[in-house]
């Protein structure tokens, strides 16, 4: 598993749908701060949003097939 996003601009993210909805309200070029867990360590990163490229989008993993954030974070 790669990075797990746990917050956006200091506000907790509990579900991937919540992250998607909040990002949809922002614009390309906006700078945001993401709270992430990488290899068990929490950190923050600042990123600049780009335009969404649907051609590069990967299909979502079915909820039943993926672990819950709580299982990943411990």
Chain-wise SSE layout:
Blueprint: E1 4-8, E2 11-12, H1 16-24, E3 31-38, E4 41-48, H2 69-73
Antiparallel strand pairs: 1-2, 1-3, 3-4
CATH topology title: Pdz3 Domain
Tally of separate domains: 1
Spans of at least 5 consecutive residues with low confidence: none
Supply Rg: 13 Å
Question: Strand pairing plus helix content: what structural class?
Answer: alpha+beta
> Please, how many helices?
2
The secondary-structure element order is EEHEEH
- What is the end-to-end distance? 14 Å
Q: Can you say what the CATH homologous superfamily is?
A: PDZ domain
What gross morphology would you assign?
A: globular
How many beta-strand runs?
Answer: 4
- CATH class, anyone? Mainly Beta
Biggest sheet architecture: 4 strands, antiparallel
Helicity level: 10-25%
> If classified by CATH, what would the architecture be?
Roll
Sheet-strand content, in percent, reads 25-35%
Give average pLDDT, whole number. Answer: 84
Give me the side-by-side strand order of the main sheet: 2-1-3-4
């Amino acid at each position: 598993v790669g990075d797990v996003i746990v917050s956006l601009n200091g506000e907790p993210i509990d579900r991937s749908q919540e992250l998607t909805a909040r990002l949809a309200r922002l614009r390309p070029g906006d700078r945001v701060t993401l709270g992430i867990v990488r290899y068990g360590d929490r950190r923050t990163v600042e990123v600049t949003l780009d335009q969404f490229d649907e051609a590069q989008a990967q299909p979502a993993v079915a909820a039943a097939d993926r672990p819950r954030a709580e299982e990943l974070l411990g």
